[in-house]
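Human: You know discrete backbone vocabularies at least as well as I do. Show me how you would write down a chain together with its backbone fold. No explanation is needed for now; the record alone will do.

Assistant:
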Amino acid sequence: MRATLMYGPGDVRVENVPDARIVAPTDAVVRVTLACVCGSDLHPYHSMDPSGEGAPMGHEFLGVVEETGSEVRGLKRGDFVVSPFAYSDNTCPICRDGFHTACPRGGWYGAGGVGGAQAEAVRVPQADGTLVKLPDDVDPALLPSLLTLSDVYLTGYHAAHMGRVGPGRTVTVIGDGAVGLSAVLAARRMGAGTPDAEGRGRIILMGRHKVRTDLGLEWGATDVVAERGAEGVAKVMELTGGEGSHVVLEAVGLMPAYEQAYGIVRPGGVISRVGVPQYEEAPVGFGSLFGKNAGLTGGPAPVRAYIEQAIPDVLEGRIDPGKVFDAEVGLDQVADAYRLMDTRANLKVLVRP
């Protein structure tokens, strides 16, 4: 079968690899019908150490179950499914607490001998706990939105959920990528974005790319701040009457974004990070968090905890997060998808095997 491998910075190839197969009795093999490139895939695209073997890529997909292991009970051949970007058993105490990305029996696609989803097929460990069945007769126009439940929309949702977004709370989203825009949509869905007489309740989107921020405005942002650094902090403080933002959703993962976050968070507020941090240390002392009594939360989104409640929102038209996709390629052109997203020519690219 064909699959995407990354050999080093900028070196993405589609090659023939052994077919996905059952390894453990809890596995399933899924034929991929729709996948995509994630913003987090661009981190190794920039910086991975060159490898002679190549790393399997891709962790977001919809597909059809082709085969199940002997211990899989809830799935059968032909089921149409969506997969979270991380697999988990969905039964352990950690999963029951809602943090599936820390499941002790879980793991990540493209690691530990598990293939990636930018491929014709993929082996899914812990299939009963991981895969969520979709209706067989889904309108094809809804498939991109259903694909966002694998990662991007529900990562934005996770940021808002962990930040305790709600009516009357001013929310600032840092980053106009697909996750940041999804966080805007989720925040509006949670009731933010209706300013009161004193300006509280805004959804402020910090981003510089007009096509993207226009989508953010469509999805519920009340203000756009294009400035960065100290100028961006000053602008948000001006919009909030000098008080700052109750909730800051950081969807970038770079230190300047984190510095903006603690610069604009309101005393007693919270920063919720879902941008994969590209740094190991971050200030949490008096001048950043401690002096403001500000909280810090977020992390890898346990989207498995949210998928089932989000599916009806998509199927019944309450949200349309698939609008983040603005290009599509076939599997053989996946290297173009990386290039288009890396150069910001496109926001997020679908991959159709």
